[in-house]
Amino acid sequence: MNSSNNLGLTRRRVLASAGAAAGMGLLAGGCESGTSPTASASAAHPFYGSHQSGIATPPQSHLLLAAVDLASETASDLRDVLGDWSTAAARLMRGERAVAGPPNFQAPPPDPGEADGLGPAALTITFGLGASLFIRRGKDRLGLAFAAPRALRPLPPFRGEALSSDQSDGDLVIQASADDPQVAFHAMHALTRIAADRASIRWAAHGSRSHPPNARGGMGHRNLFGFREGTRNVDPKDAAAMTQHVWAGGGREGDWMRGGTYLVFRRVQMLFDVWDSTTLEGQERVFGRRKSSGAPLGGRSELDPLDLNAQRGGQPLVPTDAHVRLAAPETNGGRRLLRRSYSFAEGVEKDTGQLDAGLLFMAFQRDPHEQFVPIQRRLAESDALSKHTLHVGSALFACPPGAQPGGFVGETLFA
Amino acid sequence: MNSSNNLGLTRRRVLASAGAAAGMGLLAGGCESGTSPTASASAAHPFYGSHQSGIATPPQSHLLLAAVDLASETASDLRDVLGDWSTAAARLMRGERAVAGPPNFQAPPPDPGEADGLGPAALTITFGLGASLFIRRGKDRLGLAFAAPRALRPLPPFRGEALSSDQSDGDLVIQASADDPQVAFHAMHALTRIAADRASIRWAAHGSRSHPPNARGGMGHRNLFGFREGTRNVDPKDAAAMTQHVWAGGGREGDWMRGGTYLVFRRVQMLFDVWDSTTLEGQERVFGRRKSSGAPLGGRSELDPLDLNAQRGGQPLVPTDAHVRLAAPETNGGRRLLRRSYSFAEGVEKDTGQLDAGLLFMAFQRDPHEQFVPIQRRLAESDALSKHTLHVGSALFACPPGAQPGGFVGETLFA
């Protein structure tokens, strides 16, 4: 678990809050005026800790995810970028400017400034490394191939996907999540600017996630098909489950990843035309849940157990091709993922004239080839939901363990 | 000003709040659970009134703007679409499903359902009509050309713009603004679905707008260049200013527009590469304001008067090409606009590898050819800011007056 940070908190107080979940200290940031800041604007998560932030952190309202390609071909440049990013990320998560320094009218402002006065807004920043940093076109690109974790080898193709290279892969990933979209934008802007001479943005995705006023924690939000998401997700507060399913344990090539995790990203376009014409019964059979309550078919409320053996008239209550059945740990050898997905909606899909919208599927796990890959292979082949969605982007990143003050995320790779 | 609505408010109470600005009643919506809803999730604006909502309404946090092209070529279909939309919009703004009706498992759900439980979230929905509904390729398309307002004739070209047809124009516009992005998405999804057999989406844009914790009303938010926006905007609570600058007065062709207004939309891409390399002094000279405080050059705080005559060493303190000077009513014959812009950030700009981000400029006015056009012509030719921005989308819409219960927005066109 993350330890509390030990930075200058003279204008901050520890917020005793149920939101301080997952063992992380949630700090109330300072506010320039005498008025009370809103809870979300003032919340600050610590950057430093044994794990990176933005993984076990309860999902914020907004996401900006960007894959970045390294322009340099030296390991020391990668090391410098990661070091600079960590220093800036720790500042940004405290609601400070990315780069310290007095104003100098004769120089470009060290921080672009669009988040001035917005507070930390529960910002978390998570860094990850892609396979192309280690081996590209068969070559040991930076002299780091010896450290490439087996778990980071490329994902196999899946049936029915239509991946676009300009929405897939990347040397590095930055995940900025916050309760204010401008705070997430500013973090991404500031971090990419710091590395502007050494890296360029390959793709970026913007997501959001709504919390019903009566929902607690991350539960109960709906995806854009109107169904509740994440009901049976790994509980980030369950340390044993996190160790079993999420935190990487190390191993021959990947010992530097011990305490880290692997992020699978899939950009999943939702095909609304057929979906919106599907009967309510049909929609519920696709997911295997009631639309309004989120209860599994045969159950009464969202948290009722999923009974995959229940039958009516000789037929399974939860259809054999229902999403909830095919994704369930019970039918996947106990495999689970920590999902932390966001919805996206970005303009119009040219071919259909419909809103281009769907799910930025993101899942953290200790080994994607033992977890995401077998689950997704089964979903792609049999899941009723796959007829209503199209995977158009895909990426896999190794997210190193957290850093301590004075260190940086990724330093274990260079140890 | 909008009248309060007279709908069933048994679960609602009037919120005595400074947020009930612009003379509109702000209602607290019901919440299914016993817990307290957040202020933003519970706020409801009335759809019915003498003006449409979403114009004088204090800007919400999120925007979804979509231009829609009518598939039909009959005025009665247009009338039906507008009627159906108003009925649904009034329901959506109360936090209800778009279409009433008991659940029917054997039919597609009348409402797509993704905003169930999220409350009204201060949703406003604004409708507008484009010039192409009246005259298209020189023809009286729907038999309504006689009613085409002179103020709706197409905008002229401006220097330096690079407009893309798939981000410009459109037969109709829907503006959905809310404090929850999923509520805005749902409104757009539900409304376009209602008209799916009669209309298709031409383009859509997503925006957001951050309010510092200590800001009051719509003041003080920063654009993505880090400068404060809207400091000298028309005050929607100033009825005389709204009558003078914003609400259309009618006239020979456009009498049906009396009490309506005209929306100019410009998608303005910000060019961050040069901007981020510009000195702080240079940035402040481009805007004519201090970056941190928002004070006009020569002033001390954001609300200080703009002194365009102030000099130092024989040079004007506010440069001759500063944005604040060239956009000022004082240098534009008193012309003013009610701006209601949002920031956007949607992926990566292919040519530069930078974040594709900027401003969804939106301004309401009584006659764009007397207000926006002369101001923008001057800005396009001389404004220092124009070197750092690129206008890539443009549209103009006539937003009819509001409707009363039983009526619909746009009915005056058919009277």
Radius of gyration of chain A: 21 Å
Question: Largest interface, with Cβ-Cβ < 8 Å?
Answer: A-B, 79 and 79 residues
Structure summary, number of beta strands of chain A: 16
- Estimated helix fraction of chain A: 10-25%
What is the residue-mean pLDDT of chain A, rounded to a whole number? 88
Main sheet characteristics of chain A: 9 strands, antiparallel
How would you classify the helix and strand content of chain A by structural class?
alpha+beta
Indicate the proportion of strand residues of chain A. 15-25%
| Order of SSEs of chain A | EEHEEHEEEEHEHEHHEEHEEEHE
Measured between the Cα atoms of the first and last residue of chain A, the distance is 22 Å
Coarse shape of chain A: globular
Oligomer: homodimer
Continuous helix count of chain A: 8
Low-confidence stretches of chain A: 1-40
